[in-house]
Design a protein that fits this description.
This is Ankyrin-2. There is one protein chain. With about 180 residues, this protein is mostly helical. It has 2 domains: about 90 residues, Alpha Horseshoe (Serine Threonine Protein Phosphatase 5, Tetratricopeptide repeat); about 80 residues, Alpha Horseshoe (Serine Threonine Protein Phosphatase 5, Tetratricopeptide repeat), CATH 1.25.40. It has 10 helices and no strands. The longest helix is centred in the N-terminal third of the chain and has 9 residues. The protein is elongated, with a radius of gyration of 17 Å. The N and C termini lie far apart (about 50 Å).
Length: about 180
Amino acid sequence: MAHPDAATTNGYTPLHISAREGQVDVASVLLEAGAAHSLATKKGFTPLHVAAKYGSLDVAKLLLQRRAAADSAGKNGLTPLHVAAHYDNQKVALLLLEKGASPHATAKNGYTPLHIAAKKNQMQIASTLLNYGAETNIVTKQGVTPLHLASQEGHTDMVTLLLDKGANIHMSTKVFWF
């Protein structure tokens, strides 16, 4: 019998692939056969990260029901919530927050999910993160705030949202250009 955690050369297991494709029934069978929901690819992504990337809400729900860690961090410190913010997967982001994912989680570069949402102009996710207590003035290792990123990218509506939620316009970065 084939092992349910057999991986590709990049570390993708059948569970990662079913998460990518949104195949919740396949994911359920794999988990019943003993597949591990915590195995990471070579880039450090668990099946929950993959579900967050591809917006596979039902697979994400299943993985969380099976006790997958909502805040598991990959090699660069990215959590599934960072990934959902990057790819604008609002429903998965909301699910992760409801299941205890931290809106304050910081990647190794200091980015929070709000930094990513601000940079990519993901208005709905930014609003949700702010409603869950994300800090508007949190800084990266270079002293960059979500407001700096939204301003750099020319995202007027995001700048307005962040200012309305208390972003400090007087904060300066540690570097001239970021």
